[in-house]
């Protein structure tokens, strides 16, 4: 009799355990993939989900206050840093799971600007010159300006100026920040840099600029430390 009671109890325990296992939800899973090991400020960051389960809905949290429900996560970071991206997966049964990924965003910094040639049509041979960096083509105040080079002889070009400022984004070609002007301080005339055709292109550690005159900016890439 005792053996029968133990056998019955064991059978019920097995059935109860099996029922509990059957009720445990299978969470949606996957991996967040990116095409780059790191990005640079104003790069377009694209993140894709490689999923091994049926996912009905995705919700991205990019770690900078922005979110998205698109299948491919796209975001532009405006500040360097290490961002904790969270991706919430929801399957057809309403089960959810959260995936995590770190996105490293660096910044280009200029350390030397070189004026190679001033604008055609500027007739003076000497003058006081200054390098200014701005965020637009307007007449807003520069966010950085060099010392004034007094009585500079333009026949002695190129002129190299030490700088330490962040440079735009990581795109191969950008047409906005930063706007660079070499100006003649006595008259305010722009000697090089700003013009309707001004463009910026990164190439082999140097930031080439066309427009009024010609000049370049040498830069280095700085990545945030974990």
TrEMBL record:
Superkingdom, taxonomy of origin: Bacteria
InterPro entries: Ig-like_fold, PKD_dom, PKD_dom_sf
Residues annotated as domain PKD: 59-105
PROSITE patterns membership: PKD (PS50093), PROKAR_LIPOPROTEIN (PS51257)
Residues in the signal sequence: none
Protein name in the entry: PKD domain-containing protein
């Amino acid at each position: 009799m005792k053996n029968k009671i133990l056998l019955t109890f064991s059978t019920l325990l097995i059935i109860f355990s099996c029922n509990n296992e059957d009720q445990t939800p299978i969470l949606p899973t996957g991996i967040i993939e990116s095409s780059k090991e790191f990005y640079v400020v104003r790069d377009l960051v694209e993140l894709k989900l490689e999923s091994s389960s049926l996912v009905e809905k995705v919700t991205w949290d990019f770690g900078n206050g922005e979110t998205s429900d698109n299948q491919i996560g796209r975001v532009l970071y405006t500040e360097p840093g290490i961002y904790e991206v969270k991706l919430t997966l929801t399957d057809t049964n309403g089960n959810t799971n959260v995936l995590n990924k770190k996105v490293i965003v660096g910044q280009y910094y200029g350390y030397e600007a070189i004026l190679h040639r001033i604008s055609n049509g500027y007739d003076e041979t000497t003058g006081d010159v200054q390098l200014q960096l701005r965020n637009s083509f307007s007449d807003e105040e520069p966010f950085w300006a060099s010392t004034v080079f007094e009585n500079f002889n333009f026949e002695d070009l190129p002129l190299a100026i030490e700088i330490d400022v962040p440079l735009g984004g990581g795109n191969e070609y950008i047409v906005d920040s930063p706007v660079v002007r070499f100006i003649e301080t006595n008259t305010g005339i722009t000697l090089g840099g700003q013009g309707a055709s001004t463009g910026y292109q990164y190439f082999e550690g140097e930031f080439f600029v066309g427009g009024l005159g010609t000049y370049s900016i040498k830069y280095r890439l700085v990545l945030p430390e974990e």
